[in-house]
């Protein structure tokens, strides 16, 4: 097989997706720009190899059992901890700041992984550290999406009426924009930017944070890291959903 033939075959295979899992020869030819004869030969080869299956009635093609087998291999070798560590390290290296992953545990924010900044001055954040959900960005982005009864229990821990109002305003803002930027909320002179993570059922289960000394992170600089933070969240969430069905 020539490289051109291989590229054409992969181009055809790449057309199959969750949004469009079934194709006929002619429509796939129109979609790919390849001739019907080229498409037909490639589809037949993939069918014979178990990568595609053909409906006897419609003669159209859809993914076969071989992809399920490869998916099982991929899942068996995929470890969530490794993906989190990789994404945190990439965030820390790209930003020059510290990145950490926090899970919701017993109505507290539990830090489970940290990638420290390589700079001389770093912030004090450690794996295993627990904090209240209402204090700091990493907890607030989870608290904002918790069920009302659990959220009310957290609010009762904030006794000052003015502080309660500020917290409620913050939670409403988080639900609207999907992230939170904190400056000196939990630790003086520390800035943190956090986003929540959700399971397949839409329930919040964790948060991802990038933070560092406020002197290095004015608001404009901090917000410039939001796209990378969201990309890391997508990678971690995709792994989580793969492992948890």
UniProtKB/TrEMBL annotation:
One GO BP annotation of this record: negative regulation of DNA-templated transcription
Chain ranges of the HTH iclR-type domain: 3-65
InterPro entries found in the cross-reference section: GAF-like_dom_sf (IPR029016), HTH_MetabolicPath_Reg (IPR050707), Tscrpt_reg_IclR_C (IPR014757), Tscrpt_reg_IclR_N (IPR005471), WH-like_DNA-bd_sf (IPR036388), WH_DNA-bd_sf (IPR036390)
Residue ranges constituting the IclR-ED domain according to the UniProt record: 66-242
UniProt keyword list: DNA-binding, Transcription, Transcription regulation
Gene Ontology MF term list: DNA binding; DNA-binding transcription factor activity
Keyword Transcription regulation annotated: yes
PANTHER family registered for this protein in UniProt: HELIX-TURN-HELIX TRANSCRIPTIONAL REGULATOR, ICLR FAMILY, HTH-TYPE TRANSCRIPTIONAL REPRESSOR ALLR
Protein name as catalogued: HTH-type transcriptional repressor AllR
Organism field: Sodalis praecaptivus
């Amino acid at each position: 097989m020539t490289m051109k033939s291989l590229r054409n075959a992969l181009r055809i295979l790449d057309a199959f997706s969750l949004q469009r899992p079934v194709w006929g020869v002619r429509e796939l030819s129109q979609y790919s720009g390849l001739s019907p004869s080229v498409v037909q030969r490639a589809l037949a080869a993939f069918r014979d190899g178990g990568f595609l299956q053909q409906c006897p009635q419609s003669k159209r093609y859809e993914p076969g059992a071989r992809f399920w087998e490869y998916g099982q291999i991929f899942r068996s070798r995929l470890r969530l901890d490794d993906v989190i560590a990789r994404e945190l390290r990439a965030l820390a290296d790209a930003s020059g700041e510290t990145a950490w992953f926090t899970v919701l545990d017993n109505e507290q924010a539990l830090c489970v992984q940290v990638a420290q900044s390589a700079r001389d001055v770093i912030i004090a954040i450690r794996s295993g550290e627990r904090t209240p959900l209402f204090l700091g960005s990493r907890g607030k982005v989870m608290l904002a999406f918790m069920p009302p009864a659990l959220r009310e229990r957290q609010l009762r821990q904030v006794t000052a009426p003015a502080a309660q109002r500020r917290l409620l305003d913050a939670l409403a803002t988080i639900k609207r924009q999907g992230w939170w930027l904190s400056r000196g909320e939990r630790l003086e002179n520390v800035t943190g930017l956090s986003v929540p993570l959700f399971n397949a059922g839409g329930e919040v289960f964790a948060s991802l944070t990038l933070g560092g000394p406020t002197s290095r992170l004015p608001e404009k600089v901090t917000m410039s890291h939001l796209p990378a933070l969201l990309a890391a969240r997508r990678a971690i969430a995709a792994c989580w959903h793969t492992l948890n069905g």
